[in-house]
Amino acid sequence: MINRRESKQINVGNVKIGGGAPISIQSMTNTDTRDIEATNAQIQALYEAGCEIVSCAVVDIEAAKAFRQITEASSIPVIADIHFDHKLAIEAIESGAHAIRINPGNIGSADKVKAVVEAAKANGCSIRVGVNAGSLEKDLLKKHGVCAESLVMSAESHIRQIEALGFYDMKVSLKASSVPLTFQAYRMFAEKSDYPLHIGVTEAGTFFAGSVKSSAGIGALLLSGIGDTFRVSLTGDPAEEIRVAWQLLNALEIRRRGPEIISCPTCGRTEIALVKLAEEVERRAASLTSTISIAVMGCPVNGPGEAREADYGIAGGKGNGLIFKKGEIIKKVSEEKIIDELFGILVDDGIN
Amino acid sequence: MINRRESKQINVGNVKIGGGAPISIQSMTNTDTRDIEATNAQIQALYEAGCEIVSCAVVDIEAAKAFRQITEASSIPVIADIHFDHKLAIEAIESGAHAIRINPGNIGSADKVKAVVEAAKANGCSIRVGVNAGSLEKDLLKKHGVCAESLVMSAESHIRQIEALGFYDMKVSLKASSVPLTFQAYRMFAEKSDYPLHIGVTEAGTFFAGSVKSSAGIGALLLSGIGDTFRVSLTGDPAEEIRVAWQLLNALEIRRRGPEIISCPTCGRTEIALVKLAEEVERRAASLTSTISIAVMGCPVNGPGEAREADYGIAGGKGNGLIFKKGEIIKKVSEEKIIDELFGILVDDGIN
After folding, report:
1. Is domain A260-348 given the CATH code 3.40.50.720 in the classification?
2. What is the DSSP letter of B98?
3. What does CATH list as the number for A10-251?
4. Does the pLDDT value for residue A305 go beyond 80?
5. In the prediction, which pLDDT does B327 show?
6. Mean pLDDT of B216-233
7. DSSP 8-state assignment for residue A18
């Protein structure tokens, strides 16, 4: 239903970005990258949660060298997130980083950019030109201030600089903590360029505030057909970013992972039990990757009928609950046991 | 930054909708409307949470008559949500409903619509033409199936029917549980009509899933300039709908209510304390209506500098925390006491 913007395709390791490839989900570790064991463990947890590409901050040369062991252990491509020091970019590339992110605002002189691009070219490493509203070049800030035009101009001038070196394996991000600014900047850039876009809203906040902010900003862009890969930024465990990201792709009917939980609108008497039931089903279903649908209905009379299109469902009420499968009642159990019974049936049916 | 679609203005009680009026937040009670005491209490709680218009389901004539006492007690306009029975609409209007919502798919014959419209006209009551993908007219379903065109055609034909009776105080909704379908239907309708729009996604799900779904769908429409009033639909306490709604308006920089919490991106060592601190500040600040900003920073060295634009802030680390105001450190306290101290200072400063 969404007409996607046409973009060229690049690779980040074995993941294709743009050119019709599935919209991929990214996150970023918040471990100390030099602590290889902790970083590898967090990447593994992110992978299991459904993360497809991960970035790690490169704060010094030791962190850059750690990319050797991190990329070897990782099940997904690893991007080196670079600020300020082009030498860290080169070391990370030579240590196996699948891509690097550089910020036009702080990577430095043309010579330094050239050295980085040559290393990337020699090692099959792609580059994210990662513009951020918080760190725009001083001349742009002076002339135009923080606005969508500045973000776009920063990206464009950096792209031209890299293209002049014969390098084209780039994706672009233009992030701000303001949702309208982010939305406007990506829309403006998307009309002028066919480089694939990494979308996201920076410093989005806590799980609640950040989910709302990222869902609105990223959701609006994806519904407009813009975005080839994205990160939901949250203050907290990065695995939560993946949970929100998949929920968003599911809501937009772009990609599915794991069950969809359908719960009926509440009505007076059954409300409290229903909310708890629905949230418990959602929590327990979070570990499943099968794309089944599960309906949680408050009303035992109309429940199976209303949810007739769901693969599985439960309908609770008056102490007894019904379990149904494709709209047919298959079991009647006490309300306390209904969730255990449902998940037992899923196991029996080989759903995981 | 957002160019809003121009729409005509109507009134729902004393709240103006469309024509440049502030985008208003709605919710719906899930009490039994006939239980007047419970319904009034829930409306009061919704009002205190920041709800500006509330709907109540009208299931029978007793519920319709209850509107007399409900509208008298309510601090905000009350809409009667009608399905199937036009007599309930008329009774609710005559009992003081500030607006009614009727569904073109199930309100019945032209005669019935005429009786409802005449009652609305006589009582200064406005009408929401509330199309829902789940209850489209049979002829539309047969010809076109469930699609954006069907939703738009259903609304248009019902609007024409009501306009032919000389009535124009209408707003329109075209809801579906599918986000892309909802987005497409509103965009299509917005291009063809200047009636104000009530936007939302139906049956959005639990707090988590529903927040993501509504933020994406409603957020995308609002960023496109579409929408004059909206409801976030969640399975659960309707006051949570209001919390998400305000968070969304805040994220889109459309309207503000209550503090904005800014938390720094996590880094290894301070992460866990920071997330807890930020969430605790968010929880305690939820009862405030002042539009201050509060920064929660992990790093006591750079915290005040990084958050220099926040009204208030705390920076935790190594057992001690700093409290700052407009970027200046005003107090150093132990980390356990920092939140109590911060909220004590807010009270002293008359922030509520």
Report:
1. no
2. S
3. 3.20.20.20
4. no
5. 80
6. 97
7. S
